[in-house]
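HOLO CASE FILE
Compound: pyridoxal-5'-phosphate
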Amino acid sequence: MNFSNSIQAFEQAKLSIPGGVNSPVRAFSSVGGTPPFIKRGEGAYLIDEDDNKFIDYIQSWGPLILGHSDERLVSKLIEAVKHGFSFGAPTRGETELAEKIKSIFPHVELLRFVSSGTEAVMSAIRVARGYTGRSDIIKFEGNYHGHSDSLLVKAGSGATTFGTPSSAGVPECFSKHTYLAKYNDIESVKKAFSSSQTGIACVIIEPIAGNMGLVPADINFLTELKNLCDINGTVLIFDEVMSGFRADLRGSYGLNNIKADLITFGKVIGGGMPVGAFGGKAEIMKFLSPLGSVYQAGTLSGNPLAMAVGNEMIKILIENPDIYKILNNRAINLMNGFKQSADKYNIPLQIDVRGSMFGFFFNSQKVKNFDDALLSYTKRFAKFHRGMLELGIYLAPSQFEAGFIALPTNDNLINETIQKADEVMANL
Ligand SMILES: *Cc1c(COP(=O)(O)O)cnc(C)c1O
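Model generated. Tokens follow.
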């Protein structure tokens, strides 16, 4: 495969943009080689600057559950853009999307839109602190909640990939209110609760972790976590920026029926446009300005173009709930295919699936938490990733990321991918 145009584009980008990218994981540093520079997306495919065509298992890191450039979304966007880009004033589209999300998550009584998942989480934590009058929070090792200061402590995603799970540039006093716990380990949460002098404002968790690879939480663990929060008057926040409308129409709630006090959304609800949202109990959300004393705002929040695409996306998903079953079957087939090849060549591999999300670790033991994930054989992953890319399969360029199936990624493409994985694994 020829990557010469991408190599040139990457070199040129580095002269103007740090590392040539606007989000670190895109640089492919942990798997080596040059990232393909993308020219366009078509359904299941990405086409790069050298006209290489890849089956895309990243789908913009989750948002594109209908694949690239879905015609229905494109026509809604074109219709909306003719009316203006942004007004900085309320529009009906915002209420419509809020009502759709509420219809799926009955425990979300009020919600507010922002422009990214990072902002959604940052704001949810602020309102939880305002509501409880407490400062300390608990997060889990290997969970990623965006790049705001107090959450870049043992964070997943690119932070793990680059060996800097705790970022430089965050003063110690900013992160001293962040207590860490181990994923799927309720004792570690109890310990964090008891080490806080002033009480815990909120516990934030990815109920289906997708940023240390795919590591779902046990239902028992989540149930105990909820009880612990209730007993302590602590706000439980489910960060469903990735898993919402992805693992299931109802995210983790659809799979385990556990109701968090606040939920954060992003990715799928914007269908590829920059959107985030946070919402939950009215009693908590009423602390937000202009009703209450917690300030939060955004020039482009609830942007009309983003709302137009988001509304169409969620409408399609609500009207076609069978999509999730279809995508789930494909994800299971894909992972079983990988596993069969790995077994054939005596390669230790762990696989997991939740709805249209999938994950695999080159690891001899089941991965339940961040420490387990870090035991994975990342050099082997890098080799596998490169081999797959050369054969036209675009997987996340890190062992510590999840994969995503989109609607146009049909059974034939899944089978093609399984065959190619077998070829690559034969040479690992
Ligand atoms: C992607 C992600 C975020 C951050 O969202 P951005 O839009 O990248 O700021 C936060 N939480 C989770 C669980 C995510 O997957």
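CASE NOTES: The CA atoms of residues 202 and 234 lie 5 Å apart. The chain is about 40% helix and 15% strand.
CLOSED: yes
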